From TrEMBL:
This is Cation diffusion facilitator CzcD-associated flavoprotein CzcO. GO terms for molecular function: flavin adenine dinucleotide binding; monooxygenase activity. The keyword Oxidoreductase applies. Keywords: Oxidoreductase. Pfam families: Pyr_redox_3. The keyword DNA-binding does not apply. It comes from Kitasatospora gansuensis. SUPFAM superfamilies: FAD/NAD(P)-binding domain, Nucleotide-binding domain. It comes from the Bacteria.
């Protein structure tokens, strides 16, 4: 049905936490599925990035998962893999709220038509819309920093990490100062010798994450995107908390951090003339926002990022980015979905009839 151009009011790209929150609020605010809005998702099945996380990430080791609006996740078995629990919950959520998700549809580009509508070109036909909510996350853009030299052993990014089994008995170097590095260390150190390197001295938080520290961290990231600077993850400014994974890594003696090496060698890494041989390197070095398809809109500022006010692109009020920068967490994505829809409804002058 969607092989010709389909006209809607709003297109949401991505059906992760941020896209589903946006879809829920569009529906609540009286937009009808399909005719008025549609969610285009590149994956074959529900779950967003959660469907791709390592099978070894259990609900007990997830930092903190916030339910989507108006449907609670039943208390999960702490030992259950997050990559099964969360996609199951998202599938039930899409069904309960009758959200119009079309998949698999990969958006290739978004451009502006002379008539003022947006053209959303995909691998499964084209859509046009008056407004766009981009909720494409970061999972598909793992970031690998450049270091000179060539290592001939196994190297992988955290996005491809599938648990510790393949590293049994080896010496494994883990790069990165965030929560994913801690998760990898806590698992791999059970079966292998680990070496941890980070660019900066890791910042530790004593207590659990409070509302106040959360707000302060989000405000820092928000300030950067308002200026159009490249996005930093919220986690990068919150510090490492005393999580289950952190405690396990500590018990295993895996948290002795070394500074970043300066080059890769055939069999490992080197700091000056001091070389260390390793069997494998896991790069837990983060992700970047998946926004390449927005390039034709010319939103990138001279600072290298997209300037955002709240969720709205400063240079084009038809475009909202949710799950981006300050809203790249499950709670932030929920709020951003609502905020974006409030502004878009105002922009369109769309109906405000309640959904139930
Ligand atoms: P995603 O879940 O990544 O969804 C994006 C969707 O967009 C995907 O379905 C994808 O297929 C689709 N898509 C992408 N590009 C296109 C395209 N061109 N066309 C069509 N569809 C497209 N946050 C927490 O609050 N708690 C945690 O415990 C937590 N753990 C994390 C662990 C890791 C390893 C990482 C990397 C992040 C973690 N986060 C956590 C932050 C996380 O990014 C957010 O919480 C949230 O899950 C992201 O949701 P999202 O909707 O923005 O993106």
């Amino acid at each position: 049905v969607y092989d010709a151009t389909t006209d809607v009011d709003v297109v949401v790209i991505g059906a992760g936490q941020a896209g589903l929150s946006a879809a829920y609020h569009l529906r609540r605010r009286g937009l009808a599925p399909y005719a008025d809005f549609v969610v285009l998702d590149a994956d074959d099945a529900p779950g967003g990035a959660w469907a791709h996380r390592s099978p070894s990430l259990r609900m007990a080791t997830v930092h903190g998962f916030h339910d989507l609006p108006d449907f609670e996740l039943p208390p999960p078995d702490p030992a259950a893999p997050a990559r099964e629990v969360v996609p199951g919950y998202f599938a039930a959520y899409e069904a309960k709220h009758a959200l119009p998700v079309v998949r698999p549809v990969r958006v290739r580009s978004v451009s502006s038509r002379p008539d003022g509508r947006l053209l959303i070109a995909t691998d499964a036909g084209d859509w046009t819309a008056k407004a766009l909510i981009n909720a494409t996350g970061t999972w598909s853009r793992p970031f690998l920093p450049y270091y000179p030299g060539h290592f001939t052993g196994r190297q992988l990014h955290y996005a491809d990490y599938r648990g510790p089994a393949e590293f049994a008995g080896q010496r494994v170097l883990v790069v990165g100062g965030g929560a994913s590095a801690i998760q990898v260390l806590s698992e791999v150190a059970e079966v292998a010798e680990t070496v941890w390197v980070t660019r900066r001295e890791p910042v530790y938080r004593d207590g659990p994450f409070t509302e106040e520290s959360g707000r302060a961290a989000v405000a820092l990231v928000e300030q950067r995107v308002r200026q159009g600077l490249p996005v930093r993850s919220v986690v990068s400014v919150t510090g490492l908390g005393p999580s289950v994974a952190y405690r396990r890594a500590e018990q295993l003696g895996a948290l002795h951090r070394r500074p970043m090496f300066d080059r890769l060698t055939e069999h490992g890494v080197a700091w000056g003339d001091q070389e260390l041989a390793v069997d494998a390197i896991v790069w837990a070095t983060g992700f970047r926002p998946e926004v390449g398809h927005l390039a034709p809109l010319g939103l990138r500022s001279s600072g290298g990022g997209i300037r955002i006010d709240g969720t709205r692109a400063v240079d084009d009020p038809r475009i909202h980015l949710v799950g981006y920068g300050p809203s790249a967490s499950t709670i932030g994505a929920n709020r951003a979905g609502r905020a974006a829809v409030n502004e878009i409804v105002r922009l369109l002058g769309a109906p405000t009839g309640a959904y139930r």
